[in-house]
Specification:
- There is one protein chain.
- With 78 residues, the chain is an all-alpha fold.
- 65% of the residues lie in helices and 0% in strands.
- It has 4 helices and no strands.
- It starts with 8 loop residues before the first helix and ends in a 10-residue tail after the last helix.
Length: 78
């Protein structure tokens, strides 16, 4: 039986927090480099990169990912 994680490891595990913080830094860099003059291609690429980062975070701590990336509907693999 699969156990359901209710508490974010981000809040309780410093190694998890460090990994996720690196990914969040990468995400913020991608987001901040987008501007009003960004092409649709650049925006699409950024969206794909952000989604990939979100899934990396999800693989580390699903609870934190769902709380942080609310615009993404994560598909769980059983």
């Amino acid at each position: 039986m699969k156990t359901i994680e209710l508490t974010s490891k981000y809040k309780t595990n410093s190694k998890v927090r460090a990994k996720i913080d690196k990914l969040l830094q990468k995400n913020s860099t991608i987001q901040s480099n987008l501007g009003s003059e960004s092409t649709q291609e650049e925006k699409d690429l950024a969206n794909r990169e952000v989604k990939a980062i979100a899934y990396e975070v999800y693989n580390i701590c699903p609870v934190f990912a769902k709380e942080t990336f609310i615009e993404i509907e994560f598909k769980e693999v059983l």
